[in-house]
Amino acid sequence: MLDQAQKVLKAVFGYDAFRGEQAAIIQRVAEGGDALVLMPTGGGKSLCFQVPALLREGLTVVVSPLIALMDDQVATLDELGVAAVALNSTQDAGQQREIAQRIRAGEIKLLYVAPERLVQPRMLNFLQGLKIALFAIDEAHCVSQWGHDFRPEYLQLGQLAELFPGVPRIALTATADLRTREEIIQRLHLQGAERFLASFDRPNIFYRIVPKEQPRKQLLAFLGERKGDAGIVYCLSRKKVEEVAAFLAEQGYPALPYHAGLSNDLRAYHQKRFLNEEGLIMVATIAFGMGIDKSNVRFVAHLDLPKSLEAYYQETGRAGRDGLPADAWMAYGLQDVVMLKQMLNNSEGDERHKRVEQHKLEAMLGLCEEIRCRRQALLAYFDEVLAQPCGNCDNCVDGVQTWDATEPARQALSAIFRSGQRYGVGHLVDILLGRDNERVRTLGHQHLSVFGVGKALGEGEWRTLFRQLVARGLADVDLDGYGGLRLTERCRPLLRGEVGLQLRRDLSSKLPKAAASKASQLVRSDQREQWEALRSLRRKLAEEHSVPPYVIFPDSTLLEMLRQQPASLADMARVSGVGARKLERYGEAFLAVLANNEPVAEVVDLRHELVSLARAGMTPAQIASQLKCSEKNVYTLMAEAIASQQLSLEQALDLPEDLLGEIQDVFLDGEGQLPSVASVAGSFAGQVSEGVLQCVRAALQVEFEASQ
Ligand code: ADP
Ligand code: ZN
């Protein structure tokens, strides 16, 4: 069995060896046993059911909660030459009938379907008439009522056990906590499943947390070393998302906003661009994330503090799914703490719930002020022991300096107490530094015994100290009052002189510029040009096949090509990630680029040229022959140029007025949402090409956005 699995791994997926427990999982499932797989994002869960699907006779049914996820996997399998389809609500009855036919004829190996569809009696009936090889339940934590991804339809998947006795089932998730695990087993009736629990470490992610000083400037410095990389910048509020996205765009970074306040259509459009284009930065609230399968997200930056370590782990985990070095960067300050506490305070829910949330926030703050290895601390929170410091986080690399803050901390606490536990950090610092200003005078605070006792430290150091006192729960923010600081029970031993206090020193701004991270050094500088050439070939192929670039080849495979410099198809076949089908389809083209004897038409250049030709009045057909590419391609590029407002619809197409009106009407029937091209194409069959529809839609989209 394992021999065969190994062969499939190489021939179809192009990989040489299984990772971690993949082999054991595949063996278990291929031999007909049930399995529960807990593996972090990027761990390689998909292969755990895709390989058995190819080894077993019959149809593998994959349950997946999101259309975007399904489409991505189907496209990936398609590129590998594996017969996979997704059934979803965007297909019309005719398309669905055709898929059913192909399934009955045994032409399909994997069927992706949403849970609500799977549990429809008709669907279950249909499947019962077939030979089913395996059920794979992806994102199985959606069955948990306690998690924020809860999907009620998942609860009904338990019946598969009774309806399909003898058909193995595998449930997979990247959520590891004990309660979720038990819930999955119980609700999905997986009591007999073998459990595979992988380490949740993401060794390729470099963690860095810096004190927030001038966040935008700090972000720019961070991004400056990562030009051309795709990444996500998380912010807490919609407003801030908009502002930061605009700011980055102004600074010359390709950034798009994403939050729940945007129309569905615009959100979908931005998400699609993020997946399909390279080097885009998504500035987003936490509304963005689930279902992002993009493997080459090189960084995740937090401009605001997440509310728990669970959230931090999940959000940073979207970086580096491909296993290549990636960065998790965060700037945090006292204001974050105040904001989150405020939100928590105003949130609904009982006291117990609030206490739990409070506890989670404290754990998050603990990581920020951590003086040990960040990875050790993070994993410890998830009950996993990492024996040695990781060597791949800021604390390990830069070292942490601590200092004895016992005396200043007492002074600070005393300043809080003596001024009446109602003032914010600014005023408290004024008192400690003995600043004789109007506010101090009005309040008579120049007479306090702590007035001017803190001149040994600077303003910045005092601010850091207050932040750390709050982070450690020695002082608290009074949310009912004016947001001033007050003492907590926990500070008493320190005030009484029973314990001392060691704190980490903020160094970031004084430290010499940190060495460029591994993620920004993926490609040797002398190979940059070839790297770009490989990427643009990939981009061109991706556009031709209408799939995201990483579906053609992941970054790791392109990097392997750079490293190995294959000179023949036989060499190429040895590159990790090059399976038989891709070798046949793309081998020659990539060899040519590596041999540097065939300049790749840069898509971006192509678009520029296309824009000038269209402006000059050429028709799409003329442009296609001029640029030696398909007309379909010309339309796609035109639609993109229209979307980015390089081209107007009038410049692109010469449509009769009334026909244009007719097309626009059909699109605008969608009530505030632009329907997809595919869904309106039927209305114009034989009359207007999909390319034309694409362009008209793009123009409407621009108007839409302008009116937002
Ligand atoms: P998950 O679903 O667990 O987040 P994926 O299944 O998407 O992870 O796999 C992450 C990446 O790792 C994909 O690009 C996949 O092709 C790659 N991968 C998985 N298993 C292997 C392996 N055995 N060897 C090389 N690459 C692998
Ligand atoms: Zn470390």
TrEMBL record:
Residues 215-364 form the Helicase C-terminal domain. SUPFAM superfamilies: HRDC-like, P-loop containing nucleoside triphosphate hydrolases. CDD domains: DEXHc_RecQ, SF2_C_RecQ. Its cofactor is Zn(2+); Mg(2+). One of its GO terms (cellular component) is cytoplasm. Residues 177-278 form the Rhodanese domain. GO terms for molecular function: 3'-5' DNA helicase activity; ATP binding; DNA binding; four-way junction helicase activity; hydrolase activity; metal ion binding. Residues 524-604 form the HRDC domain. Keywords: ATP-binding, DNA damage, DNA recombination, DNA repair, DNA-binding, Helicase, Hydrolase, Isomerase, Metal-binding, Nucleotide-binding, Zinc. Its EC number is 5.6.2.4. The keyword Cytoplasm does not apply. The keyword ATP-binding applies. Residues 26-194 form the Helicase ATP-binding domain. Belongs to the helicase family. RecQ subfamily. This is DNA helicase RecQ. It comes from Pseudomonas pohangensis.
